[in-house]
Amino acid sequence: MSTPHPFSSIPPAKLESLNDLQSHLAANPSPQKCNLMYGVYRPDDNLPFVLPSVRLAKQRLFEDRTWNHEYPPSHLGTAGFREETTKLIFGEESEVVREGRYVRLMHW
Prior knowledge:
Elements: H1 18-27, H2 52-63, H3 79-90, H4 95-98
């Protein structure tokens, strides 16, 4: 008998469409509303506001000829971590795990 998946008791989330959220924003009469759906703050001129610290960081990275823009292998986690994460997501007793029908990123 297999154990239930750790996420089996979590009900599916109700996802709201982006169009629905945008219509709610448009209908909101508040003069203090702020549209954060773009992922940036836009002041009255409607141009993205870039923090001075972000501008400085971008400038430093752009000017640094030694900067390597590759992600380091450590971002992928250890092999054991990736193995256990796969079991957590699919369930240790799932056919996907038992039959090895999955692919994960690995580093060399």
